[in-house]
Amino acid sequence: MALSRQALAKRKRMTIVALAVLALGVAVALVLSAMRDTVVFFYSPSEVAARKSDPALNLTERNFRIGGLVEGGSVKKLEGGKTTEFAVSDGAELLTVRYTGHLPDLFREGQGIVAEGRLDDHGQFIASEVLAKHDEKYMPPEVADALKKAGRWKEGEVTP
């Protein structure tokens, strides 16, 4: 049974549309796959403590960010001063952070920081970068949210 000229044209258009949708789907999948390795998630110390053994997060093999306040009395210089170890708190949990390199000038105990790195096999956060806030009133949004969840900081309040 031969198809009419209109039916052939419709079939050709549907084939082109199907191929275009398939190509778009492949392109989106490739872009999402490429972005997956560059996306850096933020977790509070409480979230890290609760989910550090979650195989879906893979916190020992993926870089992620943590944020909170540098716990008072926790800053220690190691290895001749090149490495610094300190604890970051969101009010509910403490996470030990080890960083080798020059800390920002504004880094000090009681201040909010954001650090990027990954957990080692012992559950210690090995930071590759540490960011400190840049004025008295600014708090990184992720840190403020984590502190708010822990009930340790409220909007408009001077940072603890």
UniProtKB/TrEMBL annotation:
Top-level taxon of the source organism: Bacteria
Compartments it resides in: Cell inner membrane; Cell membrane
Coiled-coil regions, chain positions: none
Cytoplasmic face of the membrane: 1-13
UniProtKB keywords: Cell membrane, Cytochrome c-type biogenesis, Heme, Iron, Membrane, Metal-binding, Signal-anchor, Transmembrane, Transmembrane helix
GO molecular function: heme binding; metal ion binding
Record's keyword annotation contains Nucleus: no
Membrane topology (UniProt): Single-pass type II membrane protein
GO cellular component: plasma membrane
Parts of the chain on the Extracellular side: 35-160
InterPro entries: CcmE, CcmE-like_sf, NA-bd_OB-fold
Similarity-based family: Belongs to the CcmE/CycJ family.
Function summary: Heme chaperone required for the biogenesis of c-type cytochromes. Transiently binds heme delivered by CcmC and transfers the heme to apo-cytochromes in a process facilitated by CcmF and CcmH.
Stated name of the protein: Cytochrome c-type biogenesis protein CcmE
Source species: Govanella unica
Lineage of origin: Bacteria, Pseudomonadati, Pseudomonadota, Alphaproteobacteria, Emcibacterales
